[in-house]
Automatic annotation (TrEMBL):
Gene Ontology CC terms: ATP-binding cassette (ABC) transporter complex, substrate-binding subunit-containing; maltose transport complex
Keywords: ATP-binding, Cell inner membrane, Cell membrane, Membrane, Nucleotide-binding, Transport
One MF term in the entry's GO annotations: ABC-type maltose transporter activity
Full-protein positions shown: 1 to 238 of 353
Organism the protein comes from: Rhizobium esperanzae
Name this protein carries in UniProt: sn-glycerol 3-phosphate transport system ATP-binding protein
Domain ABC transporter: 4-234
Keyword Nucleotide-binding annotated: yes
Topology of this chain in the membrane: Peripheral membrane protein
Family designation: Belongs to the ABC transporter superfamily.
Length: 238
């Protein structure tokens, strides 16, 4: 696993600057949660880390090496989306192994990784099904499985549970926590859900209009929000 360093990261779409000089040092194995109102730049920041969006200012390093100009594949970072983004025509097994096949991995190695991930995520019984034959929670597990088999340097999650109903959301949150305890993977996780943020995060970064308002351990933010804005997202109700 590798740490991720954001050094004065900025993003402009034409004349419109949406991310302003963000500095964050994410330690190897850390679980960082990003929260903030809709439109504050959370997805844009994740997409820049993943390499899905150009970085228009600053330096991004993964494992100490600058990656600004590397393609998503070269960065070796896995991203899990809220809409799962599974291939509908492929079985679960093929969804999980597709990326490895494209990269020319040996088939016994692919089989080993898919089996491991399927065990960890409890989706062994669904390997021959297609996404349409799965529940939302099962699809989300497959999407996570597809990320895990890559054995990436880091995981990025963009509101992965927001399409699930409340009880499934709780179950999957506990699964993600277990998975993180087991894998200790460097993770950046975007959520709207305060409970997810408080329970999953090593640190929480509260974003507002393209800047980080405050970053710290969940309890520190909860007890000592730096502003009313942070208190609204994390702090105790006053
Ligand atoms: P969040 O994920 O926090 O809701 P986003 O990162 O999606 O926010 O968006 C941040 C800002 O960037 C918003 O103002 C949004 O309208 C703008 N934005 C996002 N993508 C584009 C784009 N492709 N072109 C222009 N503006 C964009
Ligand atoms: Mg978003």
């Amino acid at each position: 696993m590798a740490g991720i360093t954001l050094n004065k990261i900025s993003k402009s779409y034409g004349q419109l600057q949406v991310i302003h000089d963000i500095d964050i040092d994410i330690a190897s194995g850390e679980f960082l949660v990003l929260v903030g109102p809709s439109g504050c730049g959370k997805s844009t920041l994740l997409r820049m880390i993943a390499g899905l969006e150009d970085i228009t200012g600053g330096e991004l390093a993964i494992g100490g090496a600058t990656v600004n100009t590397l393609s998503p594949a070269e960065r070796n970072i896995a991203m899990v989306f809220q809409d799962y983004a599974l291939y509908p025509h492929m079985t679960v097994e093929d969804n999980m192994s597709f990326g490895l096949k494209m990269r020319g991995a040996a088939s016994d190695e692919i089989g080993r990784r898919v089996e491991n991930a399927a065990n960890v995520l409890k989706i062994k019984d669904f390997l021959k099904r297609r996404p349409a034959q799965l529940s939302g929670g099962q699809r989300q597990r497959v999407a996570m499985g597809r990320a895990i088999v890559r054995e990436p340097a880091a995981f990025l999650f963009d509101e992965p549970l927001s399409n699930l109903d409340a009880s499934l959301r709780v179950e999957m949150r506990l699964e993600i926590a277990k998975l993180h305890n087991r894998m200790k993977a460097t993770t950046v996780y975007v959520t709207h859900d305060q409970v997810e943020a408080m329970t999953l995060a090593d640190r929480i970064a509260v974003m507002n209009a393209g800047v980080v308002e405050q970053i710290g351990k969940p309890l520190d933010l909860y007890r000592k929000p730096a502003s009313l804005f942070v208190a609204r997202f994390i702090g105790s109700p006053t």
